[in-house]
């Protein structure tokens, strides 16, 4: 019987789509003390056909709190937007020697204007395609810095239960797991402080 957590290679996005389609207009994955409310987001939602064709998605992150994640759909993929805490950001460089591509040097995994340790345009805001680079499962967000069964020194990140791949809070993959590369960062830019356009590079970017 097929593993329900792994996408059928013939239909590489459908399983993941089913999982997140119902969540595209809600904040999910609130983590951490003091984060009680689960606000709804406002987003411009083009038609399903336009989205599959690659139309950009406008993400309003005005209500996004530290430790929370917004999920949007772009080109049939889940796009995660996460607001990272100062503690999580400070932990990122301490993980470098445990990672395959700590400085984001594989050009396939992010646009050229996304560099280095944070893999983001603004340090606190991470934008990722939420699909494991092994076989396309949607990893679980484990954003808190605390011991986890799969890593007693966990500094926050994403854990893929399908085959136990681990990524940090920048989507950087750990050594020694099945996933070969960092999570993908999609093209995006800020229209203003609280609006991200997913699918369009910043003006002037290559
Ligand atoms: S799909 Fe295999 S570890 Fe994520």
TrEMBL record:
<dbReference type="InterPro" id="IPR017941">
    <property type="entry name" value="Rieske_2Fe-2S"/>
</dbReference>
<dbReference type="InterPro" id="IPR014349">
    <property type="entry name" value="Rieske_Fe-S_prot"/>
</dbReference>
<feature type="transmembrane region" description="Helical">
    <location>
        <begin position="20"/>
        <end position="41"/>
    </location>
</feature>
<keyword id="KW-1133">Transmembrane helix</keyword>
<keyword id="KW-0249">Electron transport</keyword>
<keyword id="KW-1003">Cell membrane</keyword>
<keyword id="KW-0732">Signal</keyword>
<dbReference type="GO" id="GO:0005886">
    <property type="term" value="C:plasma membrane"/>
</dbReference>
<protein>
    <recommendedName>
        <fullName>Ubiquinol-cytochrome c reductase iron-sulfur subunit</fullName>
        <ecNumber>7.1.1.8</ecNumber>
    </recommendedName>
</protein>
<dbReference type="GO" id="GO:0051537">
    <property type="term" value="F:2 iron, 2 sulfur cluster binding"/>
</dbReference>
<dbReference type="InterPro" id="IPR006317">
    <property type="entry name" value="Ubiquinol_cyt_c_Rdtase_Fe-S-su"/>
</dbReference>
<feature type="domain" description="Rieske">
    <location>
        <begin position="117"/>
        <end position="197"/>
    </location>
</feature>
<dbReference type="Pfam" id="PF00355">
    <property type="entry name" value="Rieske"/>
</dbReference>
<keyword id="KW-1278">Translocase</keyword>
<comment type="function">
    <text>Component of the ubiquinol-cytochrome c reductase complex (complex III or cytochrome b-c1 complex), which is a respiratory chain that generates an electrochemical potential coupled to ATP synthesis.</text>
</comment>
<dbReference type="InterPro" id="IPR019470">
    <property type="entry name" value="Ubiq_cytC_Rdtase_Fe-S_su_TAT"/>
</dbReference>
<dbReference type="InterPro" id="IPR036922">
    <property type="entry name" value="Rieske_2Fe-2S_sf"/>
</dbReference>
<comment type="subunit">
    <text>The main subunits of complex b-c1 are: cytochrome b, cytochrome c1 and the Rieske protein.</text>
</comment>
<keyword id="KW-0411">Iron-sulfur</keyword>
<dbReference type="InterPro" id="IPR006311">
    <property type="entry name" value="TAT_signal"/>
</dbReference>
<keyword id="KW-0001">2Fe-2S</keyword>
<keyword id="KW-0479">Metal-binding</keyword>
<keyword id="KW-0408">Iron</keyword>
<dbReference type="InterPro" id="IPR019546">
    <property type="entry name" value="TAT_signal_bac_arc"/>
</dbReference>
<dbReference type="GO" id="GO:0008121">
    <property type="term" value="F:quinol-cytochrome-c reductase activity"/>
</dbReference>
<keyword id="KW-0812">Transmembrane</keyword>
<dbReference type="InterPro" id="IPR005805">
    <property type="entry name" value="Rieske_Fe-S_prot_C"/>
</dbReference>
<keyword id="KW-0813">Transport</keyword>
<keyword id="KW-0472">Membrane</keyword>
<comment type="similarity">
    <text>Belongs to the Rieske iron-sulfur protein family.</text>
</comment>
<dbReference type="Pfam" id="PF10399">
    <property type="entry name" value="UCR_Fe-S_N"/>
</dbReference>
<dbReference type="GO" id="GO:0046872">
    <property type="term" value="F:metal ion binding"/>
</dbReference>
<keyword id="KW-1015">Disulfide bond</keyword>
